[in-house]
């Protein structure tokens, strides 16, 4: 996609939380559809959670088409709020979604100060395969000043794994996933890029 512009989320002059939530849900719908098949309900459940100072958004023709967070050992990508999620999804599913998301997104990262952790990469289905994710990753590497970038990808996401290898990331560890069959993947693959 030509003329994709990338900005940090808190640099937008308009509120882009709803747009970012739509892209997040589009990218992770398979994983989140257990909680609701309605994308608007899912967006409502997570639109509050973005930490705007670590998110980078790709915009094309005035529309947000991709998101990426570059977290640190000081700040993660999302801080989910149980009340917001329960209000959107109901008590049972909301409580379970909060438990799952907070376990995934809240723990601090135990990486050195000079390491950026790329997470929550997603693009709209219409923009997939058009260079949006590559542009986001390259933007972060070119504009932030970390000496190392780390990311993880699940073994079933072969397109993302192939993309990260193409961008120069190398695999350094695999970790078997507990209850992997239920989650739909067997391993988490950890990859790094050294500047």
Write up this protein:
- The chain has 195 residues and is of the alpha+beta class.
- The protein has two domains: 5-126, no CATH class; 147-195.
- Helix content is 37%, strand content 26%.
- The chain has seven helices and seven strands.
- The protein has a seven-stranded mixed beta sheet.
- A hairpin with a 2-residue loop joins strand 2 and strand 3.
- Helix 1 crosses helix 2 and helix 2 packs antiparallel against helix 3 (82-89).
- The longest helix has 16 residues, at 17-32.
- The model has no long low-confidence stretch (mean pLDDT 94).
Give a concise summary:
By secondary structure, the chain is of the alpha+beta class.
Biggest sheet, open or closed, and with what strands and sense? 7 strands, mixed
Q: Total strand count, please?
A: 7
| Structural class assignment | alpha+beta
Instruction: Round the Cα radius of gyration to an integer and report it.
Output: 16 Å
User: Averaging pLDDT over every residue, what do you get?
Assistant: 94
Number of domains: 2
Give the count of helical stretches. Answer: 7
Instruction: Order the strands across the largest sheet as they lie in space.
Output: 1-2-3-4-5-7-6
Overall shape:
globular
Strand content: 25-35%
N-to-C SSE series?
Answer: EHHEEHHEHEHEHE
What fraction, in percent, of the residue positions are helical?
A: 25-40%
Stretches where pLDDT is under 50 for at least 5 consecutive residues are none
Distance between the termini: 26 Å
């Amino acid at each position: 996609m030509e003329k994709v512009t990338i900005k940090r989320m808190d640099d937008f002059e308009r509120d882009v939380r709803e747009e970012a939530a739509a892209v997040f849900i589009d990218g992770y719908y398979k994983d989140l559809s257990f909680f609701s098949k309605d994308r608007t309900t899912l967006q409502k459940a997570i639109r509050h959670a973005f930490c705007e100072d670590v998110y980078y958004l790709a915009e094309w023709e005035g529309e947000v088409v991709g998101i990426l967070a570059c977290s640190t050992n000081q700040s993660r990508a999302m801080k989910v709020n149980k009340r917001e999620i329960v209000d959107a999804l109901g008590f049972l599913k909301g409580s379970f979604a909060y438990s799952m998301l907070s376990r995934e997104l809240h723990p601090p990262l135990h990486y050195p100060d000079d390491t950026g952790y790329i997470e929550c990469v997603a693009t709209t289905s219409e923009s997939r395969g058009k260079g949006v994710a590559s542009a986001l990753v390259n933007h972060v590497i070119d504009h932030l000043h970390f000496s190392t970038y780390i990311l993880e990808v699940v073994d079933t996401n072969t397109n993302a794994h192939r993309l990260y290898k193409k961008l120069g990331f190398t695999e350094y560890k695999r970790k078997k996933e507990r209850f992997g069959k239920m989650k739909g993947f067997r391993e988490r693959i950890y990859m790094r890029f050294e500047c």
